[in-house]
Design goal:
CATH topology of the largest domain: Rossmann fold
Structural class: alpha/beta
Number of domains: 3
CATH superfamily of the largest domain: P-loop containing nucleotide triphosphate hydrolases
Strand content: 15-25%
Radius of gyration: 28 Å
Helix content: 40-55%
Distance between the termini: 30 Å
Shape: elongated
Mean pLDDT: 89
CATH class of the largest domain: Alpha Beta
Length: 636
């Protein structure tokens, strides 16, 4: 049965449409029980966890089939849970009885296997709010993998890491404290003695087998020469580039039974790779019939909406420790106190971000809301033959050059006016030193994105923007897609290269070209229009990482005269937003009677000689929209 939850998001409805009796009779393990409890509303959980539970149950039905070469091994689940039952908590020195949601994590990570009995999930995401014990759980995992899974193996590498040395040593300290207790219990005492286990300051080594668990921070980044069987990265949500992480992953390619575990709470910057991975695995679970992420596990305990900040009854979605009767009252009281203080100080975003595990922009001056940007995605929009408003922002120094496209259209169902926005960036790398360094600096894989058509890497041998390349690309693109350019707005402060480009466009096109002063009084209206259009759902956009990052990097700068977009740091890129605002300078009026699209004098100016002649010969005259502006009647 093909179920596409990306269309309905009705997980519970899909669950109740399937007969689960056979699965219920066969599987009584804690992980599977948790899934049934969640989907039968016996345990409260958010959408993302409901999705993971539904995936598990569906996979139990399809396991060991031709197109699904995986199986669920309860023996493996029981082994990790048995080890966890004797693993001491670093705070109390005694084992902590795991809750159902914690057992579910281990059941998914360890229970699912391929035909060779290796772990199915080679990449794992575990995300939950602050203070929910995720570091303790991963310490159990790392200790189990190093002490038990390494039996019979030699020269194996294991890793625990975090963003900096201090954070890395925190999780490493958990593991050392745990092992000190465990290796005093048989049979682990004999195992440790036989292996020559030794706890050192920054690594744990089995001298007889040369198996080593290393603590290496992201700051140090020395992952190149290792091939980690199990790698655990704590607080990875703060890492804004894939460069060093990719070294961990590439080193695991030839290692059997490997696993890379990413654990984190949400962070203020929603453009980081960790959040991109979360979105990818959620979409893959929604459309699991496509089989695009069978080796990727996503377990995300978070709220479903920012509105739930005022509904403490729902906070167990992101704070599952609220399910502990003896801790609920104290934990809930602390969360309410934090919420109320953050409301009073105007810092509620911090509570939503860290305590409800919601991705959003922390700054109250942010230009756009993350959810509005994500909800606007529409990759099916067709641009060919449409009217378009163009904006242009030429780069200074290390900035990108951006062309913004605003396509007005009417909704196919409601007939309401809409705008589809797009961009194309030209990427310089002179100041960075290389395109590789530029990618690392901006946190974007420009070479891959160029293949998808979202950008062009400068062809200039010194890595600077080539105005001729920009000019030729733009004319070719407009001609290729038969676009009807209504307006071209640009920022005059892009140096003499901008003048060369605009004068060439004036000489060789019939476009309406205007220099737009970059001051708040001039930019206030199009800036506000773009912002409100996102908030009211009137904007659609392609799933373009360059555009998304720029939209989320942008903040609002305000003075007594008006507003315009700005950025918090010099390294953040908002060139795309500047270009889109310039395009909206006239695009915002497209559906108004006074807009240039409805000005008949400008229509004639934009016509070719053939179109002018056809207009004069038309006995109905007056209106030439049906002949020339057919794209305005297209719907998405």
């Amino acid at each position: 049965m093909k179920i596409d939850l990306s269309q309905t998001r009705d997980i519970v409805g899909a669950f109740h449409s399937i007969d689960w009796e056979e699965i219920k009779e066969k599987y009584n393990d804690p992980g599977t029980k948790y899934c049934f409890d969640v989907l039968n509303n016996k345990k409260q959980a958010g959408y993302d966890i409901q999705l993971a539970c539904f995936r598990h149950l569906r996979d139990l039905q399809r396991q060991n089939t031709k197109n699904f070469p995986y199986h669920y091994d309860i023996k493996q689940v029981n082994q990790i849970l048995k080890f966890a039952s004797i693993s001491p908590n670093v705070d109390t020195g005694e084992p902590t009885k795991l809750m159902d949601w914690q057992k579910f994590i281990f059941s998914q990570m360890m229970g699912w296997r391929d035909r060779d009995d290796n772990k199915r999930f080679t990449r794992v995401i575990v995300s939950v709010s602050r203070g929910q014990g995720k570091t303790y759980l991963m310490a159990i995992l790392a200790a189990y993998s190093f002490l038990i899974e390494s039996l019979g193996l030699e020269n194996q590498d294991y890793l625990v890491a975090s963003i900096n040395y201090k954070q890395t040593m925190k999780i490493f300290g958990y593991i050392k404290s745990m092992l000190r207790k465990i290796i005093n219990i048989e049979p682990f005492k004999s195992l440790a003695k036989d292996a020559g286990l030794e706890l050192q300051s920054e690594q744990i080594i089995e001298k007889k087998t040369n198996n080593i668990l290393r603590a290496i921070s992201h700051e140090a980044g020395q992952y190149d020469s290792y091939h980690f069987r199990t790698a655990v990265f704590d607080e990875i949500g703060e890492v804004n580039t894939r460069q060093r992480i990719s070294k961990i992953i590439s080193g695991q390619v030839k290692v059997k039974n490997h696993q890379f575990v990413q654990i984190s709470t949400a962070y203020p910057d929603p453009t980081v790779p960790f959040h991109e991975d979360e979105k990818m695995v959620i979409q893959a679970m929604e459309q699991d019939f496509k089989r695009e992420a069978d080796s990727y596990l996503g377990l995300i305990w978070s709220q479903d909406s920012e509105n739930e900040v005022y509904d403490p009854k729902t906070w167990i979605k992101s704070n599952p420790l609220l399910g502990l009767p003896d801790q609920k009252e104290n934990l809930l009281s602390g969360l309410k106190d934090k919420r109320d203080n953050d409301l009073l100080t105007g810092n509620i975003a911090d509570f939503e971000n860290k305590n409800l595990n919601l991705w959003l922009k922390q700054s109250t001056a942010s230009f756009l809301n993350l959810k509005d940007v994500e909800d606007a995605t529409d990759d099916d929009f067709k641009i060919d033959g449409r009217q378009v408003y163009l904006g242009f922002d030429f780069s200074m120094f290390s900035d990108n050059t951006a062309v913004g496209f605003v396509y007005p259209y009417k909704d196919g169902k409601t007939g309401e006016p809409r705008f589809h926005i797009a961009q194309h960036s030209f990427i310089p790398w002179q100041q960075a030193g290389s395109i590789e360094a530029k990618e690392k600096q901006d946190g974007l894989q420009y070479r891959e994105l160029a293949k998808k058509g979202y950008c062009t890497i400068t062809a200039h041998q010194k890595g600077i923007i080539n105005p001729e390349q920009v000019y030729n690309w733009l004319l070719d693109y407009v001609q290729k897609h038969k676009l009807k350019v209504m307006f071209f707005g640009y920022d005059r402060y892009g140096s003499y290269q901008v003048k060369n480009i605009t004068e060439s466009l004036n000489a060789n096109t019939d476009w309406m070209i205007q220099d737009i002063a970059q001051r708040t009084s001039t930019l206030a209206n199009p800036t506000k229009f773009l912002q409100e259009s996102f908030a009211t759902g009137k904007i659609t956009r392609f799933n373009d990482p360059i555009e998304e990052k720029a939209l989320l990097n942008a903040t609002i700068k305000e003075d007594k005269i008006g507003i315009q977009v700005d950025k918090d740091k010099a390294t953040l890129k908002i060139d795309v937003v500047d270009a889109l605002v310039d395009a909206m300078y006239q695009g915002m009026y497209h559906f108004e009677d006074y807009g240039i699209a409805n000005d008949k004098s400008t229509e004639v100016k934009r016509m070719t000689q053939e179109q002018v002649l056809k207009w004069f010969n038309n006995p109905k005259s007056g209106l030439l929209g049906d002949d020339y502006y057919h794209a305005d009647q297209d719907t998405n």
